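Team,

Forwarding the record for the chain on the shared tracking sheet. I've put the sequence and predicted structure together so nobody has to dig through attachments.
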Amino acid sequence: MKKKVVILGSTGSIGKSLINIILKDKKNFEVLLLTANRNYKELYKQSKLLNVKNLIITDLNGYNYLKKKNKKINIYNNYKNLNKILKNKIDYTMNSIMGLDGLEPTLKIIQKTKNIAIANKESIICGWSLIKKKLKKYKTNFIPIDSEHFSIWSLVGSQDHKQIDKIYITASGGPFLNWPKKKIMKATPSKALNHPNWSMGKKISIDSATMMNKVFEVIETQRIFELSKTKIKILIHDKSYVHAIVKFKNGINKILVHDTNMKIPIFNSIYQNVNKSIVSKDLDIKKLNSLNLKNIDINRFPLLKILKSIPDQNTLFETVVVSANDELVNLFLNNKISYSELHKKLLSIINLRRFKAYKKKKPLNISQINTLNNSVRLKIRELCI
C-alpha cells in the first residue's frame, strides 16, 4: 500500500529535497496535498510531477492564476478545507513552511496525520505547548527535522527523556568565527550570508552568523526533550560533521555524525523502520580525528545572552524574541540597519517592560500568538524606520 503524504511548504529547500526523494520511489508514495505561499509556478510544476490533485497557495495572485490555469486540480487559498481534502488520517506530513506562518497549518493538520515532521523552528519555539497538546490528543508521532534535533531524537530513540543527563549541540561558528571581534559588528549583509558549510536561505544564514539560530535551537531542545537550559550546551565545531552529543545518566555518551546534507534527516524521517538506502559519503576518518570541539565565546556572539531571559516553560515571550529577530533581520538584509544595530536593537526591544511581561503568560491559542507577533513587528518599525 502506498504511503499517503502531505508537504506543507513544498517549494522551499526542505520541500524540494523531500520531493526528490519521493520521485525516486514514486511507486511507494501518494502525495495528496502540496502547499506554498507565493511560488505558484514551482507548486504547479511539482503537482504535475507527482500527480497531486490538491494545492494550497496562500498568495491571492497565485491562487487566481492557478484557478484559471487548471480545472482538474483542486486549488485552495487557505487551510480551512483540510477536512475536505483529507478524508482519512494520512501516513506522513512534512511541515517546512517558513516562519510563524507555519504554526497554524501545523495545529490544523496534526489530527489528520499519523506522523508529522517539523522543519519549522518558529512553530516549535512559539507554540510548543499547543502542538504538544494536539500530538497527545490525536496520538500523532512527532519527528524534528533540524539536523541537531533530528540527531538528538535519533540518539535518544525510545529511551525516557528523564534518562538524559546533558545534550550538546554544535555550531559551525558561521562566517565570522575567526574574524576580529571589532570587525564583526561592521559586517555587511553579503559577508553575513557567506556561510562556510551550509547552503541556506537568507534569513537562516543571518541567524547562523549572529548565532541566533543556536538560541532558537537551545529553546527547541529544551521544549522537545523537556530539559532545563542548564543541561544543554553549545559547542563550536567548524566542520559541521558532529550534529549532537547526548550524555545519559547511565554513563553512556552517544554522538551522531553525518554530512552537511539535509536530505539525510529528511530521508530518515519518511523511511522510518524501512530498509532503504541513501547515497552518502564514507565515514570521514580525518574529520573524526580532528573534531576540534570548543566551548562557545559569548563575547563574540552576544545574542546568546538572550538564553538567560527565556523561561523554562513555553510562554508568549518566545514569540516576542522570534518576531523581533525576524523583523530586524529583514531590516538588516534591506540595508535599513547595520549589523551592530541588529544586535543592539534586539537586546533592547526584548527587554522593554511591556514585552518582558509576556514571560508570565502562556500561549492559549494561535490568535494570541499572531496578535503579539504583529504588535512586536509594528513596534520595531516605529523604532527603526
